[in-house]
Amino acid sequence: MASSEPPALGSPSPSLGPGSGSGDMEVACWFDEEFKFILLPVSYAVVFVVGLSLNIPTLFLFLFRLHPWDATATYMFHLALSDTLYVLSLPTLIYYYAARNDWPFGTGLCKFVRFLFYWNLYSSVLFLTCISVHRYLGICHPLRALRWGRRHVANLICLAVWLIVAACLVPNLFFVTTSTRGDTTLCHDTTKPEDFDHYVHFSSAVMALLFGLPFLVTLVCYGLMARRLWRPLPGAAQSSSRLRSLRTIAVVLTVFAICFVPFHITRTIYYLARLLEANCYTLGIVNITYKVTRPLASANSCLDPVLYLLTGDKYRRQLRQLCCKRPNQARTVSSLVLVSRPEESSCR
């Protein structure tokens, strides 16, 4: 997830700008970005290992152990699928930054990897929003939840999410490209410098539609849910539902606060600073801040499984059985254990 990769060294100096194909002289800012070649490969490698080890078992449980799905399970499965597809694309970016911005895989794969990042990012945002709205309906409008919470409706909504996000990001396939600088080939996350102004307008529209609006909907739903849950609810079942709802609120807001909000804020400031031609000192600070928050956007692939663990009772039971079940265990346990609940087994 590189930027359009401005050159790197120190302060403003007259030089050939990265987009000056005709030899026109312009003033360029040069930044020291040595930290990027350590931070990004290491952080992406951690996300790849952790994300794959968490999401592959999650997909296995959803596909083979957790049927039939309800609406919430449907949204969570598609969220896990989105995260898995993203982490599978990270090895190419790990190599790219470890090789100091040298992309040997061709323009087509560059476009696909950049597209896949944003597809995962905004699909995750929308699936988390779907989970939030579904939980809100269940708490505040139970009768509507009976109609909108059906599994076939959830499947249609998930299909719409995949298609809407892909359609909104199609222009990104045209903007993203590769270019050469000396002996290295850059894989731009944005576009060529001469098209950067157009890219900023496109990116701002996508961010408002696929992040700003869903984030606002999520906040409104959780605000209304918090007001409803503040009232006393009698009964153990309602208390269990309250606890799951509070866990959902906590996990989803944590994912937004850690992964999505910092990345979008710093990226917006970075784009504006470049568009408004800020001085090199300001641009340097913004550039560093933006690159530091980029791994956070990828970390949602590692944090999303916490949502399944904390809010899905059936998911926890199946995961416990998957991790702790021993061969012939049923033959050796006592009759007292056989009639006890799974949660009370020695695998706790």
UniProtKB/TrEMBL annotation:
One of its GO terms (molecular function) is G protein-coupled UTP receptor activity. InterPro entries: GPCR_Rhodpsn (IPR000276), GPCR_Rhodpsn_7TM (IPR017452), P2Y4 (IPR000018). It is found in: Cell membrane. PROSITE patterns: G_PROTEIN_RECEP_F1_1 (PS00237), G_PROTEIN_RECEP_F1_2 (PS50262). Pfam families: 7tm_1. GO terms for biological process: cellular response to prostaglandin E stimulus; transepithelial chloride transport. GO terms for cellular component: plasma membrane. This is P2Y purinoceptor 4. It comes from Sarcophilus harrisii (Tasmanian devil).
